Amino acid sequence: MMKPNKYYAICDCDSCYCSCERVFRPDLNGKPVVVLSNNDGCVVARSKEAKQLGIPMGIPYYQLAERFPGKEIGVFSSNYELYGDITQRVMEIIRDACPEFYRYSIDEAFCVLDNLPYDALKTWGEELCLKTRQWVDMPISIGIAPTKTLAKCADRFAKDYPAFKHCCVIDTEERRIKALKLFPLKEVWGIGRRYLERLESYGIRTAYDFAMKPRAWVRKELHVTGERTWMELNGIDCIPTEQLATKKSICTSRSFPGMIEDLLGLRTQVSNYAARCAEKLRRQHTVCANIMVFIDTNRFRDDLPQYSNSAMEVLLTPVNSTQEVVDAALRALKRIFIQGYKYKRAGVIVSAISDEGKVQTNFLDFNPEKHEKLKRLTASIDKINKLNGAETVVLGSQQYTAKHGKGKAGSFRDAIKHDFRSHNFTTRWEDIIRVK
Question: Are 409 and 415 in contact (CB under 8 A)?
């Protein structure tokens, strides 16, 4: 492994969703905790104790009591507003601790560090872990290495082995080889299911087995993507940092608590999914040109007629305002909706994503005055929602009304089943903690 010019650190929140719930429930520390999917369907996040208990990922909620009788398990509905705010606080601490920062997901971030000796790198990581625990009460683990893929490997060791004190550094050839020999191939960043099956058929079981294959063989079998992973495992930095911060596509989709038969009900759901996609675009300062909507009936109900379809709206000028993204999504929905089916799931996918500062406008549909007006309006809505809680201000199409017109209109978060959802202690005034 060549002497690197710099090191990469991957900072990853431990059992993110469960740890966020524990911030305000310290009584659950050391106890198994799980978080359920939307509509309280199945387990999508588990604490370390829940994994040790044997709770599998994806188990339906109703089976927990049957398979683990008498076990005290903390169960929570997913609360992404809380998780987003807590992890944002963690990311701000990480951002302040390093010269170059790239947020990779809700609970992960890459840091670019100078070429420092082992002791300095280890001290930096351990101090950062301690700071996030003291300031936000969130546990994180850090992997440091000359490449991003090796850093992901180091992060796994930091999580699994307490002796590392939440920070593992791979900085020498000896440490790299030892780590790769212990690291399962299925956990290597960049090795998907399709590649995994092919490599295992050749008897490749560990990251070391893969890294020892000839480069030409890897290029032939796995093409450019696989070759890049091979290079990273061999200490050759080749994944551009710019690719880490921007997603190529964004999808928001959910199953409904019940089934929806009318277009109005589907419009509400699709409007909210499209609004979420627009918010994510603005958060990473990008715009999109393609907006696709898909709808599905319940494939598990053989007694019902089945139908699924999708449609895409291609925009001449890329956008990220909620109004424009929602309008395009609803146009796509109208083209594929057919009356007479019971719909169970829908989703919105935005793609053809580019930097909002490099938008190529089209004179046929671009109205500068309208664009500036929407930009100011969107900025104001985002500010209000940030100060007062998500969905304080929404579009009319995002509001739902109870079935048959009974009950008042409510927000999208109230349309999802969430019997075990915690309060939004840090983002909503009505949920603020009261100390007695």
Answer: no
139 domain-assigned: yes
**H/E/C letters for each residue in 91-142?**
HHHHHHHCCEEEEEECCEEEEEEECCCHHHHHHHHHHHHHHHHHHHCCCEEE
Q: How many CA atoms lie within 13 A of 42 on its CB side?
A: 9
Task: Return the SS3 of 144.
Answer: strand
Q: Which residue matches tokens 């947020």? A: 103
Which CATH number does the domain housing residue 149 bear?
3.30.70.270
Residues 273 and 137 in one domain: no
More confident residue, 222 or 417: 222
Q: For residue range 226-259, list pLDDT tens digits in order.
A: 999 999 999 999 988 766 656 678 888 888 878 9
Per-residue b or e along 103-119, where b marks 16 or more CB atoms closer than 10 Å to that residue's CB:
bbebbbbbbebeebeee
Total domain count, the chain: 2
- Distance, in Å, from the CA atom of 397 to the CA atom of 326, rounded to the nearest integer, reads 9
Rounded to whole angstroms, how far apart are CA atoms 16 and 8?
A: 21
